[in-house]
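Duplicate of earlier report; Oxidoreductase N-terminal domain-containing protein input re-posted below.
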Amino acid sequence: MAKGEEVRNKQVLLKHYVTGFPKETDMVLSTGSIQLKVPESSKAVLVKNLYLSCDPYMRVRMAKLEIPSYIDSFELGSERVFFSS
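Output:
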């Protein structure tokens, strides 16, 4: 894929920090477009996600931590946090 095709993209972004179990209202669905481009010399692959799962590890990162931890909380609205398809 030298040139890269442009495709529509959906993302689930963190809208609010979570207290307890995550709810749909804690997230927002964003749409846009991305270039499907992998460098010629790269051995990378493109993957399309079909499902989003929030495991217990992610729940901790979805909360606003009041005390320092070895991991940071996710950034609200950051597109590098969750999922793109």
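The chain is about 5% helix and 25% strand.

Merging into the original ticket.
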